[in-house]
Amino acid sequence: MFVRIDGVAHHVDVTGQGPVCVLSAGLGLAWFEWDPVVELLAPARTVVRFDRPGLGRSGPAREAPTLAGEAERVARVLAAVGLGERAVTVVGHSLAGFHAEAFARRYPERVAGLVLVDSSVEERTRALPARGARVAGARACGAVLGAAGVPRAVGPLLRGGGVPRRLRAVYGVSRVWRAGLVEYVTYGDVAHELALLRRVAALPGAPVAVLAAGPAGASRWVSRQRALADTLGASFRALRPAGHLLMRDRPHEVAEAILTAGPRPSG
């Protein structure tokens, strides 16, 4: 289905029944990356997933992303599909881990659980200059690459795996590359916004879980994820070996974490 938020058509998928969880994928990624997890959750959860503006099947973005805007987007998507009054388990992967944590801090009464799936981590952030120029440059770069046919030629190959037709229809589209590039150049701004939000808004008392992907042995990345869990007072689990797309590499463990973090279905 599609819902309009601030004039932009947002692609939203709602599947299953029971307590609500909302899933948001990482930088430049689409709703279908969650497919293996949704299959496991749907018998016991109402699963909501959506594409941010410019990504997946959603319409082009009108504005560059901000942390506050992305947290509000989660709330408005839920309201648009008639779930605005329900407490939800909010799940964020990679960059969307920032968005999920911000939603939990800004709307604590709406949160039944928080799950961060190999979330982005930035221990030191700062205000960055020339945001407007960075965004304009990213959009111009996306337009040039699109005109040259680069997205169609290499987009599906960079993603790898999956259904070729679906990959071409999403990751081979210039609109998606432009949106992904803008998310990339504003990543530092969003990370800094979260650092500031953490100073003034606490997490709710709901369960929090951090899942980390890593190689079979020790890694600096897993250590940083463990430190994030300690900072948030969260449970922690390293899934090894696994790649960054944990929802595809280890869907059973991701689904288990979501089910554990959220409420049990009544009856």
Characteristics:
267 residues; alpha/beta; Rossmann fold; eight-stranded mixed β-sheet; globular; Pimeloyl-ACP methyl ester carboxylesterase; AB_hydrolase_1; AB_hydrolase_fold
Give a description of the structure:
This protein has an 8-stranded mixed sheet, with helices on both faces. The protein is an alpha/beta fold and 267 residues long. It is globular, with a radius of gyration of 18 Å. α4 (131-147) packs antiparallel against α7. The mean pLDDT is 95. It has helices at 35-41, 67-80, 95-106, 131-147, 150-159, 164-171, 174-185, 187-200, 220-232, 246-249, 251-261; strands at residues 2-5, 8-16, 20-24, 46-50, 88-93, 111-117, 208-213, 235-239. It is built from 11 helices and 8 strands. It has one domain: Alpha/Beta hydrolase fold, catalytic domain (Rossmann fold, 3-Layer(aba) Sandwich), CATH 3.40.50.1820. One of its GO terms (molecular function) is catalytic activity. It comes from Streptomyces spectabilis. Residues 22-257 form the AB hydrolase-1 domain. Pfam families: Abhydrolase_6 (PF12697).
